[in-house]
From TrEMBL, chain A:
Transmembrane segments: 6-25, 53-72, 93-116, 122-144, 223-249, 255-278
Predominant cellular place of this UniProt entry's protein: membrane
Cellular-component GO terms for this entry: plasma membrane
Name the record gives this protein: ABC-type cobalt transport system, permease component CbiQ
InterPro entries: ABC/ECF_trnsptr_transmembrane (IPR003339)
Organism in which the protein naturally occurs: Viridibacillus arenosi FSL R5-213
UniProtKB/TrEMBL annotation, chain B:
GO function terms (MF aspect): ATP binding; ATP hydrolysis activity; ATPase-coupled transmembrane transporter activity
Coiled coil: none
Name of protein: ATPase component of various ABC-type transport systems with duplicated ATPase domain
ABC transporter domain ranges (all copies): 4-242, 299-534
Keyword annotations: ATP-binding, Cell membrane, Membrane, Nucleotide-binding, Repeat, Translocase, Transport
Compartments where found: Cell membrane
Amino acid sequence: MKAFETYHPIVLFAYFASVIGLSMFYMHPVYLLITCIGAITLSLLLNRKSFVSGLKFFVPMFFIAAIINPLISHDGEIILFYIDYNAITLEAIVYGFAMSIMICSVIFWFGCYNVVMTSDKFLYLFGKVSPALALVISLTLRLVPRFKHQITIISHAQKTIGMDISAGNPWQRVKSGIRIISILITWALENAIETADSMKARGYGLKNRSTFSLFVFEKRDGFLLGIILTLLLTNIIGSYFGMTTYYFYPTFTELALTPISIGLYISYASLLVIPIVIEIREAIKWRSLKYNM
Amino acid sequence: MALIEIQHVNFQYPDKHERVLDDINLIIEEGEFAVLCGTSGCGKSTLLKHLKREIAPHGDKSGTILYAGTALADLPDRVAASEIGFVMQNPENQIVTDKVWHELSFGLENLGLDTMTIRRRVAEMANFFGIQQWFRKSTMELSGGQKQLLNLAAIMAMQPKLLILDEPTSQLDPIAATEFIGTLQKLNKELGLTIILVEHRLEEVFPIADRVVVMEKGRIICNDSPQDVAQQLKAFDASHPMMLGLPTPVRINNALQINDIVPLTIRDGRNWLTKHFTNELRALESKLSSEIPPDDIVLEVKEAWFRYEKNAQDVLRGFSMQVRAGEIVSILGGNGTGKTTALGVMSGLYKPYRGKVFINGKSIKKFSNGELYRNNLAVLPQDPLTLLVEKKVQLEFDSIIDVLGISKEAANVQLNEIITTLNIGHLLDSHPYDLSGGEQQKVALAKVLLLNPKIILLDEPTKGIDAYSKEIFAEVLQALKKRRVAVVMVTHDIEFSAQYSDRCAMFFDGNIVSEDEPKLFYSGNNFYTTAAHRMSRHLYDFAVTSEDVISLCKHNQQLEQTTTPVNV
């Protein structure tokens, strides 16, 4: 269990929603750098295995996306060379890389989101919005593996009377397949009656249904949620006043290094490093606990 | 105070002429543990469902049911839902959600309780039932016994005053079933919970019940303490279907017609036997079944090793077995020892990575699919419904005859013969799903028999069917035996295998550890043996079925009568 995952689902969702939301729109080089470092560090901390194995897919994608842009877009003032009378500009190349960084970072964020927001957390959040939908999802999550299991049992049974999809001519095989599905559906409907009875017997359908979850909103959740929302708001305000916009075309705008812009960079960086700080703090805490034992 | 009072209840399903419930009067006191029994179709399940308003069957009903003095129909919704708990037969179907904790809280959510209350009740239940270890697991990962325990816990979390259970252990293996019954007894003794239980496995529940209610054809025929019911049942014929389900000591007592206190448990049964019978004749003359020539081997497994995945553990470890034509072989053993996998290997569903399987002396690998499952080998799955597709039983047979591609006339001759053997002529126009468990099984078996197999593999054929249907099924097995069909069954049912098989094999740790004819097999075991043997082994040898014990007792009785005058 990673430390960050133990926070309340609302906090986790708020974090990922704001981080993914912001990094999707920022093309400012400093912001991109922060996004990229943040996303990679968090991925290494939370899902190292799938992140590393995914690299062989992301690295080529990164370069391809970066190369395609200068081939399509010929805007920009700094012309490096010509291919077939088409200008390849520095601006277009840099913009291509910036685009790639942004896309890859967002994908990395989603990877982390998947690790942290497990189905029951997602369900819990949805339950707040629509309890009925949440229950339907929970029922489905139970039924799908059950159906899978049952279909194996049925096809085994059919196989041992020589009527499965691996025997006979194509037409017989199709018929066998249909037969298996037909048995499954009858079985499912018949059993669903009993499940419905079980739900009714336990009072499903009474008014004022409540939703229960194992998640507790603690003080620290409120504290962290406050920080996340403040930082998010700061950045939105910054963007509203155009402090975070950056133009690649016709040529690069100058990087602003005013106290306000530096403040904004820091606020964005702080938002992104929240889980990293939590993980590191937890690691240190455990280390000292271990030594003091 | 009477918790449940049933007054003159009659019930009839729509479009049916017979009454399923016929003038039922019954009072269940608070804190009672009542067991309701009877053969299948006697109306016991229907009666139970009437006690739970939400799932009461539709039909023509008259009479009143009072719950704590109020008519059931007038109870407020919340009270009806929470105070009367209902556990059904199939553990799978009752589970609604995907997580254990969510399942425990489901009913409480429906009642609209707040989070803190739910948290507390769920914690209480998890502790009482020992669910902590799998509290956060997915419900799919649980075993059958755990699932049923979860169903019970989820209902107990709603704090019912009355718990109704409809054959809750029929889908469980014997160990899980005993554990479940033990939990019920604990609930009754420690919390004073009123329990109404329908069961066909009476061996364990009969002695612990406060009241036994026996039903037949929609009527209550006995309603008293277990001891008195056992006395009253003496008036019935010993071959009455009802008798078959009773605990072994009661059956033996009834058959011998001795008028004193009826022993209900094995312990009492032992003392009772010692008190009434001598053991001058220790064993019956054994009729060893040497009629089968040993060379007629139809199925042979040689040193089979099997595992499901390359890196998984071996499930079968050098499993070897021989089956002869016209022989009934039972494979017994605990859960997870690989019995069902062994059946899979014999049927060609799984391929062993080492070792060989021979059908009629020919390696199973050399058969094509079509060949193997026609005129050779057939499997009757645990759930007969996995074989049945059509709307009518007759169409089931037609469909398989179609696939077989044999002439209609030849097929019909064969079909008629099978239908007479299995005695299912009256079911041909019914929908397979409307039949009872035992009937469904017979129809599935008939379908399998149309393939004219020489070897039939059965996966737990007696699971979830009542004692009477078992008896019928045993007759079918005998008929197959006469046709020189070899039958191999995997089962948990010790009593059934002792009575009807020619050979029993104990499966353990991926292999057969002991194998013998039932009399020797069970008298060699100390724990894993029949109730009749446990009850009588201090007096008699090789008595493994209640019939054995009864005839030994009769012999000794006669001996006593003839010898006594000489001694005097």
